[in-house]
Amino acid sequence: MQLVFGGSLTKSELALLLEQYSSEVKGFMLAMKDEALSDRRTPYESELTWIEKLRSVALPLAAETRDIREKGRDLKMEYTKIEKNGKNYIKVVSGLIKEENDGLSLVAACSEHGTNKVMLSSCCGSGNAR
C-alpha cells in the first residue's frame, strides 16, 4: 500500500521505504528457512528480485527534493463509489494521495462499500491533480 504514495516521495524517502520492505522480506525468508526442509526457491526470493528491479528503475526517476510549490496547494483527495456490472468500485475523482490518512480513507471506503477495487487516475500521486 505504501508504494501507492511513490509519486510524492523523494529519492531518499523511496530508497528508505524499499530498504525497509527488503528487510521485512529477508526476515520472512529467515523464518521460512528454518521451517523448509528442501532447497526449493521461496516466493520471498522472487519478491527480493522484484524489489531490486524496482530499486534500479524507480530510484533514478524519483525527485531529489519535493517541489516547494506543492506545499501551498490544497489538493484534498476526494473519491466516490461507482457500481458497474454489479460490482462496486471506489474511484478517486480529485486531489492527490499525499498522506497515510488518504490511503486509510480509501481502505475505509472499500470496507464501507464491500469492495477491494480502487480506481486511480494517473494524477493521484504525481502532483498533476485536476
Describe the SSE topology.
Elements: H1 11-35, H2 43-61, E1 78-84, E2 87-94, H3 100-112, E3 118-119
Parallel strand pairs: 2-3
Antiparallel strand pairs: 1-2
Helix pairs in contact: 1-2
Describe the structure.
- This protein is α+β, with helices and mostly antiparallel strands and 130 residues long.
- It folds into two domains: 2-61; 69-119, no CATH class.
- Helix content is 44%, strand content 13%.
- The protein has three helices and three strands, in the order ααββαβ.
- A three-stranded mixed beta sheet has the order 1-2-3, with helices on one face.
- Helix 1 (11-35) packs antiparallel against helix 2.
Q: What is the arithmetic mean of pLDDT?
A: 75
Round the Cα radius of gyration to an integer and report it. Answer: 18 Å
- Within the largest sheet, what's the order of strands? 1-2-3
Our estimate of the beta-strand percent is: 5-15%
- State the total count of DSSP E strands: 3
What's the total helix number? 3
Shape: extended
Overall structural domain count: 2
Percentage of residues assigned to helices: 40-55%
Give the H and E element order: HHEEHE
For the termini, the CA-CA separation is: 23 Å
User: Which residues sit in consecutive blocks of at least 5 with pLDDT less than 50?
Assistant: 126-130
| Main sheet summary | 3 strands, mixed
**Structure class:** alpha+beta
